[in-house]
Design a protein that fits this description.
alpha+beta; four-stranded antiparallel beta sheet; 4 strands; about 40% helix; about 25% strand; globular
Length: about 140
Amino acid sequence: MPVVLAGPEARRGHLAALVFVTKFRHKVFADRHLTRMEQIMRDVCVDFEAELVEFNGENNHVHLLVNFPPKVAVARLVNSLKGVSSRRLRQEFPDLVRHYYRINKLWSGSYFAGSVGGAPLTAVKQYIEQQNRPG
């Protein structure tokens, strides 16, 4: 269920385009991984009173469009999204563990975060939807 921001936060919410890349750019994701990851990311966003507006990915990276309140620091949100998804995906999908058995991390330490304030929302959503999701 989408989060509905009310009051002043509805007017001042921030939209960010986020991109997370797998450690060493390993091509590990299939559709089943991305489907579960989307639900995990939605759950984390709810904890931050944020909304995952759009989600898609390819075999070695994911794109997210997140609407979050001004009181939330992007770095904290990203840290939680990456940490929780890494831990849960490695617990639920043993096939992912073999790629990361030494370092125990799914994601690269870096990420992209861009403001979406100037771009038309439909253009950003369309770009994310057009990612070549693996079968």
